[in-house]
Amino acid sequence: MDTIPELKRPAFARWLGTTNEVTRRFLGAGRIPGLINIAGGLPAPELYPAAELAAIARQVIEEHPEETLGYAPIEGLPDLRDALAARFSTQALKLGRANVLVTASGLQGLDLIGKVLVEEGGLIAAQFPTYLGALDAWRPRQPRYRHVDLEDASLDPVAALQGAQFAYTVPNFSNPTGKLVGLPMRRALVEAAHRTGTWLVEDDPYGGLHYDGPPLPRLITLSGDRQPGQVYGGPVVYMGTLSKEVVPGLRIGWMIAAPAMIEALVMAKQGADMCTSGVTQRMALVALEGGLIERLRPVIVALYRARRDALCAAMAEHLSDWFEWEVPVGGMFVWAVARDPALDTDRLWSIALKAGVCVSPSSVFDSTGANRRALRLNFTLNPPNRLAEGVRRLAAALKTMADQSHD
Amino acid sequence: MDTIPELKRPAFARWLGTTNEVTRRFLGAGRIPGLINIAGGLPAPELYPAAELAAIARQVIEEHPEETLGYAPIEGLPDLRDALAARFSTQALKLGRANVLVTASGLQGLDLIGKVLVEEGGLIAAQFPTYLGALDAWRPRQPRYRHVDLEDASLDPVAALQGAQFAYTVPNFSNPTGKLVGLPMRRALVEAAHRTGTWLVEDDPYGGLHYDGPPLPRLITLSGDRQPGQVYGGPVVYMGTLSKEVVPGLRIGWMIAAPAMIEALVMAKQGADMCTSGVTQRMALVALEGGLIERLRPVIVALYRARRDALCAAMAEHLSDWFEWEVPVGGMFVWAVARDPALDTDRLWSIALKAGVCVSPSSVFDSTGANRRALRLNFTLNPPNRLAEGVRRLAAALKTMADQSHD
Fold first, then answer.
1. B65, A48: Cβ pair inside 8 Å?
2. Contact of B315 with B389, CB cutoff 8 Å
3. CA–CA–CA angle B361, B366, B370 (5° rounding)
4. Could you tell me which residues are beta bridge partners of residue B377?
5. Surface of A (19-58) touching B: CB under 8 A
6. Residues in a beta bridge with B102
7. Which of A61, A137, A274 is the closest to B133 by Cβ?
8. Is A114 in contact with A130 (CB distance < 8 Å)?
9. Which residues, numbered 309 to 338 in chain B, qualify as contacts with chain A under a Cβ-Cβ cut-off of 8 Å?
10. In angstroms, rounded to a whole number, what is the distance separating the alpha carbons of residues B333 and B311?
11. Dihedral pair phi/psi, residue B255, rounded to 5°
């Protein structure tokens, strides 16, 4: 019976071959003992409101057993959708339940938007460099990318958006660069989206993490201002999450968009996981209604501001011969660009790993993998002394690399 | 500024246009007041172990705050993967952590398998009729289908599997037909998968719900028997879930397969939602380790067996002129096939909805929508008196339809 040799298994889909090597190794590198991880976008676990969330978890199941333990509506729990609609409404921006989809994390939102808007070879106009998770989410759709540099003063937003299925932006403290998109560019992007019809995705996980100065208006708010008082039907697709301001472990995110877009996303969500857990959705609702985000924010902001300053101080002491950077006004990351365009940060990444520090090389934020001149450094996970030690190890790796080059 | 008219928004992806009308209406029909819903595959909520799960929820967050509230590993919590590997191992079938991926529900597993194996136009050999959720999960990949009738005694399993990317089966109490695939066909399918190389997906949400007689061996167990004692590397991809045997609201499922397949699925999971909630994963682990499934099973089985009998008795009284069916030996569904091949169950579905009962027409379990001769009736959600009333309403709808045809 076993004498007939087995045939080869069918090939995996082509997109699985498109992940670059560094990305694979990068994702596996986080668990080396003693390693200082300043690569990820992880919140500080000492800030998790564990006791409060433990009590909420028990409460929501006891008080709402059928809603939390049964299948939830695909769109999300009605009360949570209403609370999110109210939270993001302004005087001009009118949002109702039909504008809201609850997702299992911001990343799921990216998967869903790819499914509903991208055929194989479809065009995405993506803020460049681009969040690694977004590139991963869209890989199975095999899109083409148009790189959009929102810091380029000569950028024509209409030309940037025209003909794309959607434009992807992280206006608040972009991942990976930590940059804040200013008000004139925000207005220009929204204007371009309305002019061209192109959907404009506003991915906003870090919007609450501003350390210097007030927040700028959201793109969806600016879009809503154009048709005040009407239920929102414009081109902006706003995405938020609890991951960076409360905890990642609930896996709760949301999308706010025109009802027609929400309907399409619901069809995709139905085929992705049917619904999000009623337990974590109800927990999110209690957290939102109880003002948990607002109570946590000053604590988080103070801690992260101090850590940003500690990282930047250590960088100024040890890295300024090799790299230049701006001190970010919010978010989780510093983007360091090599002064020498020939410095290869993929190579540096490997050497740094051996020196005991993991950083994010710029190649993973480029769909082509070609950008090898920068690093993304995270300052939220580690306390100041670990950040300083991580930077010292990185500087040692730079010296090792320089010595190797001179051999 | 607003005088320039907005251009049309980019088109949604083509697959969104392929959902049939009945499916759309069917999914929206569940919330009509007074309606008796025997359409879905919903467990009986009175069996949810709410008090126990509420206590577990609090406990897991208090005892494991970083693991439950932080980002979990993409593959799932190591302890949960180990527990699942141990649970499904047999003397011959050797499973380790590398064989297991935790998913956010069985449905997510279907989405992931589509992503890693199907290019546009790729071929899936699917047990026919086919679970609606599987068709939904694979729609964005735009596959072709080969219908495989596992009740056809003349079926050649090698011919059925040859050349397909994977074969999809629900051996235990298939959704929608409730049929149990017998041992000879199980052996033949596994043999064919080994011969052809084709991946063989064993979707097993109902495996614990057998009402008459003992369970049959799983396909993955039969496959493991061929290479006893080696870490499993064969062609079967086994999928399970807590949804039907504990509660759906935790959204916890699992995939057990060769490590190479798990690695590919992990890449897809990374771009789908990054990870599943640590809260619900730890809850699943405590439930599994505490024997919750084994304690619940006799209660669930007794209740569902009685409801199956009640539904079938009502059907025998009211529907036997129009339909024929087999009493299912497990699962959640009775599959009723019209005696008259011209009877249109899509039309009946609409009339029945007006008569106050929602059933599942066979067209939604056919990727072409052409199969309009059968109904799927669920017996797990409603108590016997509601099941009987639902069947009476269905009989009234059949009489209305007959009267309309005579006009």
1. yes
2. no
3. 80
4. B334
5. 19, 27, 42-43, 45, 48, 50-51, 53-55, 57-58
6. B254
7. A274
8. no
9. none
10. 10
11. -125, 135
What does the mean pLDDT of chain A come to? 94
Predicted confidence pLDDT, tens digits, chain A (407 residues): 445 566 788 999 999 988 766 666 666 666 678 999 999 899 999 999 999 999 999 999 999 999 999 999 999 999 999 999 999 999 999 999 999 999 999 999 999 999 999 998 999 999 999 999 999 999 999 999 999 999 998 999 999 999 999 999 999 999 999 999 999 999 999 999 999 999 999 999 999 999 998 999 999 999 999 989 899 999 999 999 999 999 999 999 999 999 999 999 999 999 999 999 999 999 999 999 999 999 999 999 999 999 999 999 999 999 999 999 999 999 999 999 999 999 999 999 999 999 999 999 999 999 999 999 999 999 999 999 999 999 999 999 999 999 988 76
Closest by CA position to B165, among listed A332, A16, A394? A16
Other residues' Cβ atoms within 10 Å of the Cβ of residue A107: 27
* CA atoms of A361 and A46, how far apart (whole Å): 27
Does the beta carbon of A267 lie under 8 angstroms from any beta carbon of chain B? yes
Residue of B nearest to A68 (CA): B249
Query: Would you say A219 and A200 are in contact if contact means Cβ atoms under 8 Å apart?
Result: yes
Distance CA A357, CA A375 (A): 12
Say if CB B273 and CB B125 are below 8 A apart.
no
**Of the partner residues B62, B107, B197, the one whose CB lies closest to the CB of residue A54:** B62
CA dihedral A149, A153, A154, A160 (to 10 degrees): 40
- The backbone torsions φ and ψ at residue A240, rounded to the nearest 5 degrees and listed phi first, read -130, 175
Entry pTM: 0.96
Question: Terminus-to-terminus CA distance in chain A, angstroms?
Answer: 60
At A269, the amino acid letter reads K
Contact between B198 and B191 under an 8 Å Cβ cutoff? The reply is: no
User: Is the CB of residue B352 less than 8 Å from the CB of residue B393?
Assistant: yes
Quote the tokens at residue A250.
Answer: 């609930």
The C-alpha atoms of residue B110 and residue A28 are separated, in whole angstroms, by 25
A197 → closest Cβ in B10, B27, B118: B10
B124 to chain A: closest CA residue: A10
Tokens representing residue B22 in the block: 């009945």
Contact between B233 and B259 (Cβ < 8 Å): yes
The minimum CA-CA distance between B270 and chain A, rounded to whole Å, is 7
Measured in degrees and rounded to the nearest 5, phi and psi for residue A199 equal: -65, 145
Beta bridge partners of A335: A376
